[in-house]
Specification:
Elements lengths: L1 E6 L7 H16 L6 E6 L11 H18 L7 E4 L5 H10 L4 H5 L2 H7 L8 H15 L5 E3 L5 H18 L8 E3 L34 H10 L18 H14 L3 H8 L4 H27 L2 H30 L4
Parallel strand pairs: 1-2, 2-3, 4-5
The structure holds tryptophanyl-5'AMP.
Tryptophanyl-5'AMP binds next to strand 1, helix 1 and helix 6.
């Protein structure tokens, strides 16, 4: 298996990103066999599709790399790098731009959502973003791409681009990448409103647990998290219509690495007065070591940058033959 995935360096990683994406990456790395390769990268080029402040993009990239390392991505086993340091991504992006169709990109829901009625004033990069994403995975002949549900359509587009490229140029260059949307990767919702995603753009910091939060802050946010006055039922079916209660049980289950029904089997009949402290204890026990490693890594940014440079060299070597074959396929031999 060739596993490839990326994350935008937006800064301030929270529990939703951790339980929804990064925990899966670490699990895949840990389950890797001798013939498998894992590549994980910071999609710093994708960040340019939105307005950026240079110093912030730079700091966020180092911080996100530190976060991935703190969460357990091991640069001795996985190839960890930032996209901008491997120019083959942008080169393949251009070759694939000749294959991707305007109509395909026009149908991307993320483009439609983000561009809304103001498409004319958006960056060209926001529109062509999924072509670069296709290049990211096809460059390494990825077989599996672990992502959240919101990225599924982008992966389908990568498959369409790969199929058309292979067909148009009569080559068998790109295998079709499979999106891996783990059922264990839950959608973590805001602590203040069970109907919206936990997100770094929520103006209320109390809506999310940040990976950098202290034990006291974690406990305080969970104590104040919105819940209800009922007791916990015996199965998840009993949580219907109780979005906040379901979210807290989901978080508990994801942190413990068990199914929500297993959490309920243990806590059925308890109210949130008893459940929340148990959840806080579990959250602190899981997140404190991540935070402590992250704090240490943030104190040694040159070491983080060196880890990325090391990964970029390995990624460049892996990408070179595919890029060369793609150039030859389209007639760029000289
Ligand atoms: P990004 O940076 O928005 O998100 C990174 C990963 O986290 C998942 N995710 C979530 N999963 C569950 N619950 C949530 N609340 C939640 N929020 C985010 C996303 O689905 C994603 O898997 N375009 C990509 C980055 C990218 C990429 C790639 C991914 C660029 N090239 C190639 C895979 C392969 C993005 O913006 O993800």
């Amino acid at each position: 298996m060739r596993i490839v995935s990326g994350i935008q360096p937006t800064g301030n990683l929270h529990l939703g990103n951790y339980l929804g994406a990064i925990k899966q990456w670490v699990a895949m790395q840990d389950a890797m066999g001798p013939d498998d390769t894992c590549l994980f990268f910071l999609a710093d080029l994708h960040a340019l599709s939105q307005p950026v402040v240079a110093a912030e993009l730079h700091a966020n990239t180092v911080e996100m790399a530190a976060t991935l390392l703190a969460c357990g991505i091991d640069p001795a086993r996985s190839i960890l790098f930032n996209q901008a340091r491997v120019p083959a991504h942008t080169e393949l992006n251009w070759l694939l731009s000749g294959t991707a169709r305007m109509g395909w990109l026009n149908r991307m829901t993320q483009w439609k959502d983000k561009a809304g009625k103001s498409g004319e004033t958006q960056s060209v990069a926001l529109f062509t973003y999924p072509v670069l994403q296709a290049a990211d995975v096809l460059l390494y002949k990825a077989t599996h791409v672990p992502v959240g549900h919101d990225q599924k359509q982008h992966l389908e587009l990568a498959r369409d681009i790969a199929t058309k490229f292979n067909g148009d140029f009569g080559v068998d260059l790109f295998p079709l990448p499979e999106p891996l949307i783990s059922k264990a990767a839950p959608r973590i919702m805001s602590l203040r409103d069970g109907s919206v995603k936990m997100s770094k753009s929520d103006p209320s910091d109390a809506s999310r647990i940040n990976l950098i939060d202290s034990d006291d802050v974690i406990a305080g946010k969970l104590r104040k998290a919105k819940s209800d006055a009922d007791v916990l039922p015996e199965t998840v079916a009993g949580l219907e219509g109780r979005a906040e209660a379901l979210n807290l049980v989901t978080i508990y289950a994801a942190l413990a690495g068990v199914k929500p029904d297993a959490v309920l089997a243990e806590h059925a009949g308890k109210g949130f007065g008893a459940f929340k402290p148990a959840l806080a204890d579990l959250a602190i026990a899981t997140l404190a070591p991540v935070r402590d490693r992250l704090t240490a890594l943030l104190g040694d940014r040159p070491a983080v940058a060196a880890a990325l440079a090391h990964g970029a060299a390995k990624a460049t070597a892996l990408a070179a033959p595919t890029l060369r074959a793609a150039q030859e396929a389209v007639g760029l031999h000289l």
